[in-house]
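step: validate -> pass
step: tokenize input -> pass
step: predict -> running
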Amino acid sequence: MPRPKPKLILLLLVALLGTGFSFSLPHLQLSPYARYRLSRLPLIGRLIKPPVPPEKEYRAAQSLMEKLRDQEADRYAPELYARVEKKWERARTYYRTGHYDWARIYFAQIQDLGKKALEEARKRREALKARAYKTLNLLRQSYRKKSRGLSPEKRLQITLALWRLETLIQLEDFETFKKEALEVRRDYGL
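step: predict -> pass
step: emit ->
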């Protein structure tokens, strides 16, 4: 195979550089990733515009992830949260490497799954809160029935224990509430 002459290659290179300032390739149908990679090449980058990164979708997914963490979705909806977290990592990887078309798809999936995870976490938290308040009300009713025969010190101890239980509900620490409610029942006979 004959070797190309260096003068011919140099001439083609000069022609490409000369037309590179006024010539563009808008008619080529390239994927966003191909446009991204080609736009980063030194000579071809002048001819091809890089795709627009999905900044708006990225920020929306990022704020949704923060909201999921704030609402403790990992605790109340762990299955959905794990799926969202996995998709978030994959979307960020695609975003960083220039696969903007795939990143957009994953950002949309994050929005859908994230909303479902928030809703499930809210429902579970409300159900746990309702169950805890029901338990607290039963303990209060039992205390009212037995309070007449108790000493003032014992009444104060029970009142403080019930107040602590209510505080645990407000803090949404349902595991500790469950343990301490059993202790209150056992210790004070409620």
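step: describe -> The chain has a mean pLDDT of 86.
step: cleanup -> pass
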